[in-house]
Amino acid sequence: MRYILPVILLLTLAGCATTGGVTALTSAKDTENLQDKERRLWHEAGGFDDTIERSGQLYENRSATAYLQSVMDRLYPEFKGKIRIQIYDSTQLNAFALPNGSIYINLGMLARIENEAQLAAVLGHEAVHFVNKHSFLQRVSTKNMAAFAVSGIPFSSLAAASSISGYSRDLEREADAGGYARLVKSGYDPREAHKVFQHLADEVKALDIEEPYFFSSHPQLNDRINEFKSMSARHSGGGRVGSKSYNSIMSPLRLDALRKDIGQDRYRSVILVMEDGSKRAYYPAAGYYYLGEAYSRRDEKGDDKKALDAYRKAEKLAPKFSPTYMRLGMYYMKIGNKGKARHYFNRYLSLASKDANDRGYVQQYLKSL
Amino acid sequence: MMKKILTLIGSVLLSSGCAQTAYWTMTDDMNPVAKSTSFEMTIPEGWVRTTQPETWERIDIDGELQTVLLESMAVTYDGLGIHGISVTRRYSDTAFPTIKKKSTANMLPLEAADLYVAELRKRSGLERLKVLSNKPAKVGGKQAFELVMQYKNDDGLRIKIMTYGFVDKTGFYTISYRAPYLYYYDRDYAKFKKLVSSFRQLKGAFDPPPKIPAWAKLFT
Question: Touching check for B1 and chain A: CB below 8 Å?
Answer without folding.
Answer: yes
